[in-house]
Design goal:
Number of strands: 0
Radius of gyration: 23 Å
Order of helices and strands: HHHHHHHHHHH
Structural class: mainly alpha
Distance between the termini: 40 Å
Helix content: over 70%
Shape: globular
Mean pLDDT: 88
Largest sheet: none
Strand content: under 5%
């Protein structure tokens, strides 16, 4: 019985990994297909990568998505860090419950509701003050910040809960002002959480398609929205090539992160 159990576990594990990674492997494989067929292999070719690099619409959408993700994640880290500090260091104050609710509500709220709410907000602001004149980079960024702030707040707040508050108190007892305590004591202690929150927010913003579809306008389609519009007419080899490049970039990033963690662990020993 004990000998059969590892076989069953390995079999289930193999089926699980196959279910997750075989579709990805098929996308990578057919990005090198010689013909436009995504189901029948005709031969090896790199022509679709060349056509992808010549597709200006895809390149513009990718650059726009990276720009929006960078701005949204940076703003989310700033706002989320302030919210986490208020909830972790200021004790009980008027409005604490409301702040805690607002900083965690997007975690459980469907993206469709966030997108519709942001759309109604921008329409109302346009009617009242004339801004925004149209939906574009600014509206998508604001909507993504609303989504990402809650994740950053949770990550930074958990890190603040684990730090030793007596270090900050000792610095203030020695005459340091609060802003100096934050930049010289608190910030070095929580910078891994800030980096993790920024990367998480960047990924969420770059991957979002629901909220961006509500808050984007003509000429401001992000890469996920553009891919969705193309996939509706059928998967093309250019999309497979784009997916392959993204997979390669992610694999390189994960490998570098793992190598750096392993190197730091060996140095610590």
């Amino acid at each position: 019985m004990n000998q059969r159990r590892p076989f069953i576990l390995y079999t289930l594990m193999a089926f699980g990994y196959a279910f997750l990674y075989l579709p990805i492997a098929s996308v990578v494989a057919f990005s090198f297909n010689e013909t436009r067929s995504v189901s029948l292999w005709k031969g090896f070719s790199l022509q679709w990568y060349g056509r992808l690099l010549e597709n200006q619409a895809v390149i513009d959408a990718a650059l726009l998505s990276l720009l929006i993700a960078a701005m949204a994640s940076t703003l989310a880290v700033v706002i989320g860090t302030m919210a986490a500090l208020a909830l972790s260091r200021f004790g009980r104050f008027k409005g604490r419950g409301l702040l805690s609710l607002l900083s965690s509500a997007p975690l459980v709220m469907p993206d469709v509701m966030l997108g519709i709410s942001a759309l109604f907000l921008f329409i109302t602001l346009q009617q009242l003050v004339g801004w925004p004149e149209g939906r574009g980079i600014d509206t998508i960024t604001i909507a993504h910040v609303t989504l990402c702030v809650c994740y950053v707040t949770v990550v930074v707040r958990s890190r603040l809960a684990q730090t030793d508050h007596s270090l900050e108190e000792a610095a203030m007892d020695l005459g340091a002002r609060p802003w100096k305590v934050f930049f010289l004591v608190t910030l070095p202690l929580i910078w891994p959480a800030l980096l993790a929150g920024w990367l998480l927010a960047f990924t969420l913003s770059l991957d979002d398609v629901v909220i961006a579809s509500f808050t984007s306008g003509p000429g401001s389609s992000t890469l996920p929205v553009l891919i969705l519009s193309k996939v509706r007419f059928g998967v093309t080899p250019e999309i497979n090539a784009l997916a392959t490049l993204i997979i390669v970039a992610v694999c390189i990033g994960v490998s570098l992160a793992g190598w750096m963690m392993h190197r730091n662990a060996r140095r610590a020993v």
